[in-house]
Design a protein that fits this description.
Layout: H1 3-18, H2 20-28, H3 37-44, H4 48-60, E1 64-69, E2 72-77, H5 80-92, H6 106-110, E3 112-114, E4 117-119, H7 121-132, E5 136-139, E6 141-144, H8 146-155, H9 159-164, E7 170-175, E8 180-184, H10 185-197, E9 201-203, E10 210-212, H11 214-224
Helix pairs in contact: 2-3, 3-4
Length: 231
């Protein structure tokens, strides 16, 4: 592609995201769940036919993908790179010249999913602790240190398998509610599933919110020195 083609492609993608109903659809899919066109219509507050047209546009532009199971059709984000792009846009959409005051609902600001990893206050604190403890090193793209390997293995995370994946093992993702990085990549996804499996957090069925359990609060304090108030 030449420079003109690049400009045209970028303009088209920006236009696809910019329409308010399509923006709502994309944000709703940020939790990694697939949803039907009927659910998308309700989320976007448009008619079924209008939702179908919007979904067709998003699919054509490579922002979402369609999954068919028998008579059922589901839509999801095309991949984690789309989620990361949307998170980035959420950050720059706020006026950086003004003092930042998050208007994110408190439960979402505290802990939520960002595609397949954890975001919010809890995730930012975990990210900062892993860096301060020397378990992760690097700028933006991280590597696990030997002590970090030991900690993750102790949690039950298969670090060898994570390193064999094609995606980056660990990287920063700018948190749009905190304007600070949280942890993404293969390790970020594994940590979310580990926290759910251990009963440290619970996942809402109808939103991106994560709830911290009393067990999770105690374990975070013991293992990572992270002390969080009751929500």
């Amino acid at each position: 592609m030449n420079a003109h083609d690049d400009d045209a492609a970028l303009s088209r993608i920006a236009g696809a995201i910019a329409e308010p109903a399509r923006t709502k659809m994309l944000c709703a899919l940020m939790d990694g769940h697939a949803r039907t066109s009927t659910e998308m219509a309700v989320i976007a507050e448009v008619s079924a036919s209008t939702a179908s047209a919007h979904l067709a546009r998003l699919k054509e532009d490579g922002l979402i993908k369609l999954h068919t199971q028998g008579r059922h059709r589901y839509y999801s984000l095309a991949g984690p790179h789309i989620a990361q792009a949307i998170e980035g846009l959420m950050v720059i959409s706020r006026d950086s010249a003004k003092a930042f005051v998050s208007n994110t609902p408190s439960r979402l600001q505290f802990a939520r999913t960002c595609y397949d990893h954890m975001a919010g206050t809890l995730a930012v604190q975990l990210h900062d602790h892993f860096i301060a403890a020397g378990w992760l090193v690097g700028e933006g793209t991280y590597q696990l240190t030997p002590p970090g390997d030991d900690v993750m293995t102790e949690l039950g995370i298969d670090v060898v398998t994570l390193r064999a994946q094609r995606r980056r093992i660990a990287c920063s993702c700018l948190d749009w509610s905190m304007r600070r990085p949280h942890l993404a990549g293969a390790l970020g996804a594994a940590l979310l599933q580990n926290a759910i499996g251990r009963g440290w957090v619970t996942q809402d069925l109808d939103s991106r919110a994560l709830g911290l359990t009393s067990k999770g609060r105690k374990e975070l304090a013991v293992k990572f020195g992270i002390h969080l108030a009751e929500q």
